[in-house]
Amino acid sequence: MKDIIKIAWRNLWRNKRRTLITASSIFFALFFAIFMRSFQLGTYGYMIEQSIESYTGYLQIQNPDYFDDPTIDNSFNISDEMIDRVKNHENIKAVAPRVETFALASTGTNSKGVMVSGIDPVAEAEVSNPEHRVVKYRFTEEAIKQLKNDNALPPEINKKIETFKYNSYSSTAKIELDLDFENSDAEKYIPVIEKYCRFESNYLSPNDDGVLIADRLSRYLKISVGDSLILMGQGYHGVSAAGIYPVRGIIKMASPDLDNKIIYMSLPQINNFLGLNNQITSMVINLRDKDEMFETQNELKKIIGNDKYVVKNWEEISPTLKQQIQSDNVSGQVFIFILYVIVFFGIFGTVIMMVAERKREFGVMVAIGMKRKKLSMILSAEMLFLSILGVLAGIIVTIPVLLYGHYYPLELTGNMARMMEDMGFDPIMPLALFEPYFFMQILIVFIMIILACLVPVRSIQKLDAIKAIHA
Amino acid sequence: MSVIEIKNLVKIYNGSAVQVTAVNGVDLTIEEGEFTAIVGPSGSGKTTLLNMIGGLDSPTSGTIVVDNTDLSTLNKKQLVDYRLHNIGFVFQAYNLIPVLTAKENVSFIMELQGTKKDILTQRTKNILENVGLGDRLNSRPNQLSGGQQQRVAVARALASKPKFVIADEPTANLDSKSTENLLDIMEELNRKENITFIFSTHDQRVVKKARRVIVLEDGKIVKDERRK
Ligand SMILES: Nc1ncnc2c1ncn2[C@@H]1O[C@H](COP(=O)(O)OP(=O)(O)OP(=O)(O)O)[C@@H](O)[C@H]1O
Ligand SMILES: [Mg+2]
Fold first, then answer.
1. Where are the domains of chain A?
2. What is the predicted ipTM?
3. Rounded CA gap, B126 and B119, in Å?
4. Ligand 1 center to residue B47 CA distance, Å?
5. Is A221 exposed, middle or buried (0-12, 13-18, 19+ CB in 10 A)?
6. CA B11 / ligand 1 centre spacing (Å)
7. Strand A92-106 and strand A410-411: pairing?
8. Greatest alpha-carbon span in chain A
9. Contact residues for A304 (Cβ-Cβ < 8 A; gap 6+)
10. How many CB atoms lie within 10 A of CB B86?
11. Which H or E run includes A245?
């Protein structure tokens, strides 16, 4: 064994240049594969986090009929005791009850179909946390005019603000991004903008009789905080539902779709509105470890244990996001596959050359009594060393890059950033850390080496010593 | 005592176009301690004969018995072991493992045999000293001249304590001085340690040193001459 390793190791350095070229091709393949996967998975994780955690939740408990026919007639009652049992599961971070329905919203002059989401404002803070999306700043016409009149900001900044007229913000960070502020600009101008553009908007109190309205929807309906809104719809078991509600706050939803249609209401109020008796349409669940989602889903099924309820995961609830990720994922994998095919042939070529060059030597070794098996082991050990070299270099370089990219995500700027923003995501691309994909890439490299060794090892098994020596 | 007994050995190559009878009915006995040269024109069957004796090639008919073992009864794996434990090989070129030093090349074959470490170290040194390379133990083949490389090959062939050494044109790639030097060493080992050598050659100076000369022509022994 020792001499196999010794010979293999020295053989590796017989043709230094070839060894280095092959090892670096392994290195680059591994590096790019891991880096790309990490970007993809990191972004998916982030997108899921943003869109799932901002509304849908990872899991939902529903009435079994609700999935195919999502009306409030398919709502259900859940006991506190059951909720406690669910909450007791170690992977469950928070749960929040919800009633979702559709209604017609009207201001008298404008009307639009909307989604009314009844929430427990306190419990919801732990699940989708709508409170931090409450709009705090708005570039209203009056605010922009006032800024100009007072000469509070340089004209070019006023101009920029003009292009974002009517935009709403729940934090100054997004204002900075839209206006392309450097740190120094931000320090100077943000306080001014805060002063002029502050927007009075509140979150719901637990028994609130008012509503929160999504930003775009509010603009469509031309309605603001303090105004009243008429909602009309169908209540529980066909009773008619109608009411007039004061707007407490404007909320900037992450997803553009929701931003166009959602109205939040407190649970007591939606009970009144729809004539419900504490039924809910879903129990939304957030998890501690999202990688355990499927396991937790199955365990919850057992905990709940009867056919009055079903547990759905986000992939079932929002199949579009799932599909979007899947198709992107496939294209990424195709790219990596091509990368690996190229590298594979590089490795394969190296082994073939190694064998061809040393045919005589192998012939002599077999002739003097070296077992072919041992010879094959030497060759395989060489390839193994070669790949360890490449893989090790790959790991050493990748680890710090991943760590950095994970904790200091790439911040997008310009149009890309605005696009992500519009889709409701913060404009960052974090790298995924050492998830199974990382080890998968390493495994793939080693499998490639084994495959690349098969042919040469076979040719050693069949090597004709006489022919090899006299070739 | 005879080491090798060959009876009515025939080797026919079935080429695609023509059949070549490379060895055509050879009867031959090699005694222990002989220093035998096999000569003959190109294509006369020297290499073919040596390969069959060495267990690298199998005869079409006839028998080779080495130390009471009929080679035709051995399978491929057993043949590898047979070669490892009974025969020392010296080829025309590419004898040595290029990444191993002279010392390692010699001890390598003993490692394959499973020789104990301390014996192996001592023996390696002795043998390399015997071929005049006591001072080049740690040189790699590419740091040695062709003649020195062939001497390491002889040392390696001897390391396994073989029953005999087969050398197919060991001097073909050497200049006259190295040739003479190599032959002197082989002859000395033969005389002092009673090592049996069978070698093929085209070189008249090499033939001169042999104590038995077998002449092949068209796969047949046409002359078998012993000298003093
Ligand atoms: N593998 C083979 N297939 C077909 N014919 C072969 C093969 N090996 C050798 N021969 C033929 O067998 C005959 C004997 O060849 P061999 O190599 O034994 O001669 P040789 O005496 O060693 O010649 P040289 O002095 O040139 O080395 C030649 O005619 C050769 O062409
Ligand atoms: Mg020959």
1. 2-51+321-469, 57-314
2. 0.86
3. 11
4. 7
5. buried
6. 10
7. unpaired
8. 101
9. A61, A82, A85, A86, A311
10. 20
11. strand A240-251
Residue A437 corresponds to which tokens in the numbers above?
A: 């994909």
- Amino acid A410: pLDDT: 78
- Distance of alpha carbon B14 from alpha carbon B34, whole angstroms: 33
Length of chain A: 471
Provide the token pair at B31: 């005694």
Measured CA to CA, the distance from residue B164 to residue B198 in angstroms comes to 8
What residues in B contact A7, CB-CB < 8 Å? 97, 99-100
Which of A60, A49, A58 is CA-nearest to residue A301? A60
Contact A361 B57 (CB under 8 A): no
pLDDT per residue as tens digits for the range B40-69:
999 999 999 999 999 999 999 999 999 889
pLDDT at A328: 82
A230: enclosing H helix or E strand: strand A228-234
Give the 3-state DSSP-derived string for A347-378, with helices as H, strands as E and coil as C: HHHHHHHHHHHCHHHHHHHHHCCCCHHHHHHH
Residue count of chain B: 228
pLDDT digits (tens, 9 = 90+) for A368-406: 888 888 889 988 898 889 889 998 998 899 888 888 888
Task: Show pLDDT as tens, one digit a residue, over chain B (228 residues).
Answer: 789 999 999 999 987 788 899 999 999 999 999 999 999 999 999 999 999 999 999 999 999 999 889 999 999 889 888 888 899 999 888 788 888 899 999 988 888 888 888 888 999 999 999 888 889 999 999 999 988 999 999 999 988 888 899 999 998 888 888 889 889 988 988 988 888 999 999 988 889 889 999 999 999 999 999 887
User: For residue A31, which phi and psi values (nearest 5 degrees)?
Assistant: -60, -50
Q: Where are the domains of chain B?
A: 35-58+75-226
Range B35-58+75-226 has CATH code 1.10.10.10:
no
- Is A469's CB within 8 Å of B94's CB? yes
* Measured distance CA(A466)–CA(B90) in Å, rounded: 13
User: Could you tell me if residue B63 is left (phi over 0), alpha (psi between -120 and 50 degrees) or otherwise beta?
Assistant: beta
Distance, in Å, from the CA atom of B162 to the CA atom of A329, rounded to the nearest integer, reads 64
In terms of CA atoms, which chain B residue is nearest residue A374? B112
Q: Is A105 on the interface with B (CB under 8 A)?
A: no
CA distance A80 to A123: 14
A345/A326 Cα distance (integer angstroms) = 29
Protein residue closest via CA to atom 17 of ligand 1:
B47
Residue carrying the six token digits 């009435």: A63
The number of helices, as runs of H, and strands, as runs of E, in chain B is 7, 10
Q: Compute chain A's Rg from CA coordinates.
A: 31
Distances (CA, A) of A20 to A27, A358, A388: 10, 19, 12
Could you give the angle at the alpha carbon of A326 between the alpha carbons of A320 and A328, nearest 5°? Answer: 105
- Quick one: tokens of B3? 């080491």
**A60 within 8 A of A75, measured Cβ to Cβ:** no
Cβ of residue B48 lying under 6 Å from some atom of ligand 1: yes
Which residues in B have their CB inside 8 Å of a CB on A? Answer: 47, 51, 54, 56-57, 77, 80-81, 83-85, 89, 91, 93-95, 97-100, 104, 108-109, 111-113, 156-157, 160
- For A410, residues 6+ apart whose C-beta sits below 8 A from its C-beta are A428, A429, A430
Q: Does any ligand 1 atom lie closer than 6 A to the CB of residue B45?
A: yes
Q: Give the Cα separation of A435 and A41 in Å (integer).
A: 9
